[in-house]
Design goal:
The complex is a heterodimer of chains A (about 230) and B (about 80).
Chain A (H helix, E strand, L loop, with lengths): L4 E6 L6 H12 L2 E6 L11 E3 L19 H11 L4 E4 L1 H8 L6 E3 L7 E9 L14 E8 L3 E3 L2 H9 L3 E6 L18 E5 L5 E4 L14 H8 L5
Parallel strand pairs in A: 1-2, 1-3, 3-4, 4-11
Antiparallel strand pairs in A: 5-8, 6-7, 6-9, 9-10, 10-11
Chain B lengths: L2 H5 L1 E9 L6 H12 L11 E8 L5 H13 L5 E7 L1
Antiparallel strand pairs in B: 1-2, 1-3
Classes of the chains: A alpha/beta (about 230), B alpha+beta (about 80).
């Protein structure tokens, strides 16, 4: 049987598309198609990834200009049909700017670009994206300057009430507190899903946590996504 | 001022953070001003503006409002204001 094909949308300034491509092919056992941002057609609709990087140079706000790309218009249309969509780092920023996910990702509270390994607690394992990850706390690198999750108090409550908060920055043993919050995100939020549970956005980079050993947590993240295909 | 300049239709769109959102850049600038010895500066907020020249006055404000809310600002974190220059 031929392998399934998932799509990765690439923008001018994306720089995690190749890492993602390698991780997805290797651990999801699929082929990939890289879709250039000005292509209004996305042929392979099994699953769509929006990779990290600096789309359009992060001009205006991170992710803002990418929202108007023809490929993103198609992503928005397909998202309403239930196609699984995952945005990582800049991809998460693009999905919030498209309003496919709640909130905004703004300057880190200390205004530094943060690049380090971070522990992330899986707050909700009852999602198609996380149900196959065996650990409760995973280690994914983060690399961003605008990763501080912000939303209104009402929206935050809604996210919590609907169990839409999927990942939170934590200690190694899963404790959530201010000292484990690298960027000042509200309630340590590192990743959320939409209400229909087909769109995931996260700031940490699972595709950068696959290289060093079979224990790397990115591997179980991508393997776990196979059930969505 | 020459006539051509007078006839130009330019609008300015101001964008700033909504109240209560921490702006670390404005905070850092405020701290630097404090360190310069100025004692009377209480608070600083930062914003940006776009000068937009248009070619027709038809639907201008409606279009500018849409552009401002749909692209130039993010309504979750920012306010915008349009003025004619």
């Amino acid at each position: 049987m031929p392998k399934k094909v998932v799509s990765i949308v690439v923008f001018p300034g994306s720089n995690c598309d190749r890492d993602l491509d390698i991780a997805v092919q290797k651990y999801m056992n699929v082929n990939t198609e890289l879709v250039w941002h000005d292509d209004p057609n996305i042929k392979n609709q099994e699953m769509i990834f929006i990779p990290g990087g600096f789309s359009f140079g992060d001009y205006l706000r991170s992710g803002a200009l990418a929202t108007k790309s023809p490929a993103m218009k198609e992503v928005i249309r397909l998202s309403k049909k239930g196609v699984p969509i995952i945005g990582i780092c800049n991809g998460f920023q693009i999905l919030t700017e498209c309003k496919l996910l709640d909130g905004a990702l703004i300057d880190n509270c200390k205004r530094l670009f943060i690049c380090k390994e971070n522990f992330v607690k899986i707050e909700n394992k009852n999602t198609p994206f996380t149900k196959n990850i065996h650990k409760n706390v995973v280690q994914f690198p983060i690399a961003h300057a605008q990763g501080r999750f912000y939303t209104s108090e009402d929206n935050l409550k809604r996210l919590e009430d609907n169990n839409q908060i999927v990942f939170k920055y934590s200690s190694r043993d899963g404790k959530i507190n201010k000292s484990e919050n690298p960027n000042g995100s509200m309630n340590n939020i590192a990743g959320i899903i939409n209400k229909n549970k087909n769109i995931l956005g996260l700031m940490p980079h699972p595709e950068r946590a696959v290289n060093f050993s079979e224990d790397n947590d990115g591997i179980s993240f991508f393997r776990g996504l196979q059930n969505l295909l | 001022m020459n006539l051509r300049k007078l006839l130009k239709m330019i609008y300015r769109v101001y964008i700033n953070f909504k109240k209560g959102i921490l702006d670390p850049e404005a905070e850092a600038i405020k701290r630097t001003i404090d360190s310069m010895g100025y004692k009377t500066i209480k608070n600083i907020s930062k914003g940006k503006f776009f000068d937009i020249e248009i070619s027709s006055s038809k639907n201008t404000l409606g279009d500018l409002e849409k552009i401002s809310s749909d692209l130039l600002s993010n309504p979750i974190i920012e306010n915008f204001k349009i003025i004619k220059k």
